[in-house]
Structures are given as structure tokens and as C-alpha cells.
Specification:
single chain; mainly alpha; Helix Hairpins; PH-gated potassium channel KcsA; VG_K_chnl; transport; coiled coil; ion transport
Amino acid sequence: MASRWGFRRFQLRIVAAITAVITVIVASSSLVMWLVERDGPHSNIHSYPVAVWWAMETITTVGYGDHHPTTTLGRVVAGFLMVAGVALVGVITATVVTWFFAELDVLREVREIEREEERTEATLEEVLAQLERLHERLDRIERRGRD
């Protein structure tokens, strides 16, 4: 049981670390994108909040297309953020799958314990039935000895 909780704490640390890393990536990508694109002649990212919105939709692979980089450096930043988004989806998927498999392992252990308890109960019932038969037999023998 202790190792199970240790594993869950480990998983929660992974989720916290992923959240922190993604927050830093979104914030820094937004800042770089805003600095690179804000004065571009054809740019549509003129403020930091718009750059944050662009980074959020890019890293989540939503990509509405309402905002996009127009400079070469902006596109490099976008490419980095796209790769980070795909990696994020992979890590989150792997973490969720790991949780499901851990829960399935617990369910298997519980089922095995229940089966063992059923076998023990059946064995106990059999032993009690044999004791009852022996008791009846002893009673018969004692009655014959008195008669």
C-alpha cells in the first residue's frame, strides 16, 4: 500500500512539473512572439495578451488561425511551440494510461484477494462440516458404549 501512495505522489509530481514547464514555455513563447511580431508590418500579434492567446491555442494544437506569426523568427518560435504541444499531448496521454494501468493492477490484486478469501471460506466450511460429522459419530459411539 505504501508503494502505491508513493507511486501516486510521483505521478502528482510529474503533473506539477509538466504544468510548471508548460507555463514557463507558454509565458516565454508569448513574450518572444510579442517582442518579435509587435512591430511587424503584417503582424496580427500586437499585444502580450494576444501573444498569450496565440501561444495557448498553438500549444494545445487548437490553432484557430485568428493570430499567426508573420516573421521568420516568429515562425521558428511557433514551430518550437507546436513540437512542445505534441510532446505535451504524448506525456499527458502516457501519464493517464499509467494511472489506468495502476488502477487495473489494484483491481486485479483485490480480485485475487477475494478469490483467496472465497477458497479459505470454502475450506473452512468443509472443515466445519467434517467436524460436525465427527461430532455426530462420536455421539453415536458414546451412545453405543452406554447401551
